Amino acid sequence: MRSSEGRGVGDNAGGGPRGSGPVKGGRRAQLEHTGLRHGWTTGACATAATTAAYTALLTGEFPDPVTITLPKGQTPSFALAAEELTEGAAMAGIVKDAGDDPDVTHGALVRATVRPLPAGSGVVFQAGPGVGTVTRPGLPLPVGAAAVNPVPRRMMSEHVAEVAARHGGSGDVEITVSVDHGEEIARSTWNPRLGILGGLSILGTTGIVVPYSCSAWIDSIRRGVDVARAAGRTHVAGCTGSTSEKTVVAEYGLPEDALLDMGDFAGAVLKYIRRHPVDRLTVCGGFAKLSKLAAGHLDLHSGRSQVDKRFLAELARAGGADEALAAAVGAANTGLAALRLCQAAGVLLGDLVARAARDEALAVLRGAPVAVDVICIDRAGTVVGRSTVR
Q: Is residue 122 left, alpha or beta, with left meaning phi > 0 and alpha meaning psi from -120 to 50?
């Protein structure tokens, strides 16, 4: 089952059809064009629950609604669905609203229980019922850690610090995140295959769930291309999410109306640009997603294509990997784990994937007068592979 947590938007958190106005381009305009209501990630819900619980622990009162600040500056408010204050602990719960997105966690109750720790302990995360634990390498968390991803951890830690400063706390706390029925819900995700056992992951890089509709999103991609062309843009970028958008802006200084939120729909971008060419297209996204494009998949959705480790092993061999390394790549838990193995051995798998993805894009373009380059990034936005322009 998919999750769209991590696809970012600009301002106007709250979604819904917009009125008429000047034609705009870029990823935010694409979202507005879909007319779909977006929602909140499990990471945003856990942050709101943590903020409410720690406030109650220090003051004796739960803020309801509780307001948080998301990574891009939006300040949504959340109503509490559960609260409990006991000696030495406070718990708050938020029901996740995924908007118009058919997210598997829509309606789930996300809870955070906050307990004080000795001075100097910092913020410690624990997996409660319904939240998984990492059991295999290759994920952005160490083995044994609670499956609370890095950005939600940062959001919760920052809000703990803010509450501590406001109400005289030390900020040294244990946060236990749980999700009612999370272990059951997780069976509909890829978590068990990735070695995340016992429940769900707490996800999200922007705090916002972008609503998913194949037809609406593909239509918004086409509109984005049209707007870029009308504005005279000769270089556009297809980005898989907000982190890749930041990367291409940093690399090339592209304006907002040259940025296309292609999400999982690489084929939609390439086929439309084939019919409506621009001089140059940069494709930027996560290494694992773009390894799917390199292998010939035009739909990068996790439910319809998977990272082919055997394909990565063949690329690694072509890049100089010995048989032992190629076998390790083929058996890796995730695409990221395969990349790390090759990086340690000096094999440039990221560049090899970027080059193969560029060649696949050119094949789909079928000779259209469009130059293409590809940039692969990791979860932190670090460039781990790139192709030349061709």
A: left
